[in-house]
């Protein structure tokens, strides 16, 4: 009998049926009923727990540490993620000292200083995020401040973006990678081997493998980040080193990451009078981002992008629409990742 069928109602009914053979009053509210009802309730809870425990045995249904233990049995391990790193330029008064382990913050994110500096001889702080995650990859020109004030410092700026921050692999990502490994047998350095090796490295979310890309004995591995953006140079180096340890003797392996293909959308619409322009702009940005971010090895289809905007209730009509100043499909190619650069929206008239 299924655990889910062992409800409180089913259990109390069976218990009372067995008890009624002793000529006891088992009506609701009776002494016998009130004594046996808590037992049935606790048994029902136990059956619910037993059903949950059974689900933990199946990779599709399990989670967290239980998922780790199941996939570990097959030699698959969750990727732990990495901390972002970067450099911060400091300006201030001469002889101002900043020591390592100093905490610097930006929009609530904390970074720890890894070196000592004494102005003006040294003016660059090398920092590492206190926690792992993509959100710590700050763009160039971000603003910073010390967790505890330091006299003599007038500005803290990063001239280059912070890199290498990677989220811990989620349950769904781990399940998807495990499923790929099981469904695509690996042997003697085949395509599946190279793809699996690359995916085992932190910061790699998707992989394309091109055997014989430059003649016999050559393999090209193209890696894409978990955030669907190009991987950092450090991640590329990590994948190269890792594959070199694993690959068969004789293969010449090249590891690369795609470049960004920036997209510019210019849209003129007729706006339904029931909707505000600001809300409509946000909706258009959302649907276009969803369309572009969910592409995989596909070109930007002009009429598909057009339709996701035209389907919005706020858009009464589309008067003009271009992608990169063209009214045609935008080829992406294997070595590029499409990303939205700007979306310009104007209104023809309000109806």
Q: What fraction strand?
A: 25-35%
Class computed from helices, strands and strand pairing: alpha+beta
Query: How much helix is in the residues?
Result: 25-40%
**Could you tell me the radius of gyration in angstroms?**
29 Å
User: For the report, how would you describe the main beta sheet?
Assistant: 6 strands, antiparallel
What's the helix count? 8
- Strands in their spatial order, largest beta sheet: 7-3-4-6-1-8
Count of discrete domains: 4
Arithmetic mean of pLDDT: 89
Order of helices and strands: HHHEEEEEEEEHHEEHEEHHEE
**Oligomeric grouping of the chains:** single chain
Give a quick rundown of the structure.
The chain has helices at residues 8-19, 31-55, 64-72, 171-183, 191-199, 233-246, 277-293, 302-310; strands at residues 83-92, 97-98, 103-106, 109-113, 117-118, 124-132, 145-146, 153-157, 206-211, 218-224, 252-256, 259-271, 315-323, 336-350.
């Amino acid at each position: 009998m299924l655990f889910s069928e062992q409800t409180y109602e089913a259990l109390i009914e069976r218990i009372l049926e067995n008890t009624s053979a002793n000529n006891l009053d088992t009506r609701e509210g009776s002494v016998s009923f009130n004594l046996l009802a808590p037992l049935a309730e606790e048994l029902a809870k136990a059956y619910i727990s037993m059903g949950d425990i059974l689900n933990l045995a199946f990779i599709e249904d399990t989670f967290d540490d239980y998922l780790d233990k199941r996939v570990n049995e097959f030699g698959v391990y969750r990727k732990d993620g990495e901390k972002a790193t970067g450099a911060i330029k400091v300006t201030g008064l001469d002889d101002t000292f900043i020591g390592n382990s100093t905490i610097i913050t930006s929009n609530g994110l904390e970074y720890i200083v890894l070196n000592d500096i004494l102005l003006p001889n040294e003016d660059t702080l090398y920092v590492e995020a206190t926690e792992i995650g993509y959100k710590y990859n700050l763009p160039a020109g971000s603003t910073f401040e010390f967790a505890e004030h330091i006299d003599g410092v007038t500005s803290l700026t990063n001239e280059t973006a912070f890199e290498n921050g990677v989220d811990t692999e989620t349950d769904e990502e781990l399940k998807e990678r495990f499923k790929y490994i099981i469904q695509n047998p690996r042997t003697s350095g085949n395509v599946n081997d190279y793809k699996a090796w690359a995916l085992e490295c932190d910061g790699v979310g998707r992989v394309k493998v091109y055997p014989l890309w430059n003649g016999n004995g050559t393999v090209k591995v193209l890696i894409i980040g978990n955030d669907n953006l190009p991987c950092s140079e450090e991640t590329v180096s990590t994948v190269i080193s890792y594959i070199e340890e694993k690959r068969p003797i004789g293969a010449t392996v090249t590891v690369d990451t795609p470049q960004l293909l920036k997209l510019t959308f210019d849209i003129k619409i007729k706006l339904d009078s029931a909707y505000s322009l600001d809300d409509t702009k946000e909706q258009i940005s959302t649907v276009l981002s969803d369309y572009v971010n969910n592409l995989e090895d596909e070109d930007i289809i002009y009429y598909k992008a057009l339709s996701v905007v035209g389907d919005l209730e706020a858009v009464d009509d589309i008067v003009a629409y271009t992608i990169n100043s063209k009214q045609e499909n935008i080829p992406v190619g294997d070595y590029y990742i499409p990303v939205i650069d700007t979306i310009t929206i104007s209104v023809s008239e309000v109806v």
